[in-house]
Amino acid sequence: MNPSKRRTVIAGNWKMNFTPAEATAFINAIKPMVAGKDNCDIIFCAPYVTIAAAQAAAEGSNIKIGAENVHFAEKGAYTGEVSAQMLTACGVEYVIIGHSERRQYFGETDETVNLRTKAALAAGMKVILCLGEVKEQRLSGITDEVVAMQTKLDLAGISAEDLKNVIIAYEPVWAIGTGMVATPQSAQDAAQAFREHLRATFNEHVAQAVRVLYGGSVSSKNAVELITEPDVDGFLIGGAALDVDELTRVCTLTLATTSSHK
Ligand code: PGA
User: I want to staple 187 with a disulfide (CB 3.0 to 4.6 A). Which of 16, 147, 214, 235 is the partner?
Assistant: First the structure.
């Protein structure tokens, strides 16, 4: 498969930001800026309480609204959690799973990431699966092993068919919210390593079809050089996805580059 056939993804992770009114204002402001940019998927993952307002504002546009997590049970005694069935009942198609902040602060493990991913896929959702190494692991030179192990564990038991609904986001933890962006070469190396894993576990077609995003301090200053890498198919963006002007610049630069290079 020609890599240029992979559709670009620009996904924003709002984290614990934006009330419903703020989300509405943001979507209303960004909507005209991304109108007509139909050769990519534009997704904002919002806090649960903000999803409905963001969806209402995004209606009729090319913007999709996703969630930032999902539980693996369908329903039951899991105080504070939300199931995939609840999300799909609200028309939510995308969900981030395994973000490093969930792993760092809320005890998320590869095992629970795997369970959540399976539950979301079984409910018909599309998953943005986040993984990446912490600083100490990078400094110890074990990035490849760490990322390979996360990929193996997080995707355990997931079929080639289900992988059509998985987007992988390589997010080196040391780059998130720090302004320290990975070099384009290391983003490319990680993206390539994912494809090698998928090739070995599934087949060439799956390896070429899965979209791999980079996340960690993406901005208009680094988007072009990152997206130029052949295996980087888009971005998962935190800080810059809270700023309409900056996000507009990232979208415009990214899509201008993918349409001319890829
Ligand atoms: P950042 O966050 O762009 O603010 O580094 C990325 C993320 O956490 O997904």
Answer: 214
